[in-house]
Amino acid sequence: MKGLILYDSIYGNTENIAQAIGGTFGPPDDIAMLRVGDVMPDHFTGLNLLIIGSPTQRFRPTIAISNLLKGISKNSLKGVKITAFDTRLTWSEISKTPVLAFFVKLYGDNAYAARPISNSLKNKGGELIVPPEGFFVEGMKGPLIQGELERAAVWAKRIIAEM
Ligand SMILES: Cc1cc2nc3c(=O)[nH]c(=O)nc-3n(C[C@H](O)[C@H](O)[C@H](O)COP(=O)(O)O)c2cc1C
Which pTM value belongs to this model? Predict the structure, then answer.
């Protein structure tokens, strides 16, 4: 099985989650972990699994992840299993800022990065195998809340079970 975990990370938290997910896979799976800036068209050749992760910034994936998604052509993910993850603030942090709380209440999961990423991958023909997931940071720059790396490994096991 050939898989790719593609992520963006400004402060390292999403990268740590990507590593926890990638580290859960083992032989014979061939899983590459790549920062969004390092991806080449070749990396998509023969893929069975594509997982994309992004920090949530201003209710969205980062610009680099959004641009990458725009560059994936329609139907090119036919036969590829996909899912997505993000890192995000906890509700108790968000609720301290009324404007943030307003948008999160209004848009729900669409006010974070993972759901829009997985919707975009589905639109390109990918098959969603496990629902997109968010992992929590304590403040704007992190760190991750305790236990999130372990939760990422559990999420990865659900993906492995679907392969
Ligand atoms: C400019 C900026 C905007 C952000 N906007 C949001 C947001 O809309 N919702 C949210 O949950 N977290 C938001 N955050 C917190 C990020 O989710 C947090 O920085 C990210 O999870 C850290 O991941 P990284 O270390 O991989 O960059 C924002 C952070 C920054 C710096």
Answer: 0.97
The two structure tokens encoding residue 72: 């994936």
The Cα angle at residue 24 between residues 121 and 62, in degrees rounded to 5? 35
Choosing from 89, 91, 112, 144 the residue with most ligand 1 atoms within 8 A of its CB, the one to mutate for a pocket test is: 89
In whole angstroms, what is the distance from residue 53 CA to residue 136 CA? 13
**C-alpha pair distances (Å), 144 with each of 12, 100, 147, 152:** 10, 20, 8, 11
Tell me the CA distances in angstroms from 60 to 4, 42, 71, 106, 127, one per residue in order: 21, 27, 17, 14, 22
Q: Give the Å distance between the CA of 133 and the centre of ligand 1.
A: 15
Predicted confidence (pLDDT) per residue in 23-81, tens digit: 999 888 889 999 999 999 889 999 999 999 999 999 999 999 999 999 999 999 999 99
**Cβ neighbours for 56, distance < 8 A, ≥ 6 positions apart:** 86, 87, 88, 89, 112, 113, 114, 134
Between CA 55 and CA 67 the distance in angstroms is: 14
